[in-house]
Amino acid sequence: MSEHPQRADVIAALTAAGRDSSAASVAFHSAVAAKQDLGATETKTLDLLQRHGALTAKELAEHSGLAPASVTGLVDRLERKGFVRRVKHPTDKRRVLIEPRPEKLAELAPLFDDWAREVHELYEEFTTEELVTVTRFLTGATARQREATKRLTDPGVPDQPLTDPGVPDQPLTDPGVTD
Q1: pTM to 2 decimals?
Q2: DSSP string of the chain?
Q3: CA pseudo-torsion sign 101, 52, 137, 40
Q4: How many of the other CB atoms lie within 10 Å of CB of 54?
């Protein structure tokens, strides 16, 4: 069964747009991070903690796709900079939670204001049904990107290039989906 040329063109355009979006996202988060003497991974970790609340290091690793050893160093840096604190787990005293410090997170919020306003303006250009489709795509792409991150950061997972299911033995190129 051959693929319709229009679909191939749309997929190529979507791939290019995703790569552009990914590059813009990395640049934006790097600029935000630089304003607070943080790394981009640190700001994304703070975002996870803001959205999910206090998490264990293991939960942070699961949500971020980072290796547990990487999370330990990351939390150490964020704690030194005053953005998080380690607290005892309320029900299991052997475990520790990484808790965001809201007063420090509040310092980051103004850096996102213009961008957030502009994205909300963009939402108005789409129907609810279109936004549902975009959300479904981004959710699926994010799940796959998290799995790809785990494969790259987990020493127990052998390196295996992904292949394009439409082209046997053809390695995938970076589809450029945003984080």
Answers
A1: 0.69
A2: -PPPHHHHHHHHHHHHHHHHHHHHHHHHHHHHHHHTT--HHHHHHHHHHHHH-SB-HHHHHHHH---HHHHHHHHHHHHHTTSEEEEE-SS-TT-EEEEE-HHHHHHHGGGGHHHHHHHHHHHTTS-HHHHHHHHHHHHHHHHHHHHHHHHHH-TTSPP---B-TTSTT-BPP------
A3: positive
A4: 18
Point out the residues of the chain with pLDDT beneath 70: 1-3, 155-179
pLDDT of residue 63: 87
Closest CA to 106 of 26, 50, 48, 45: 50
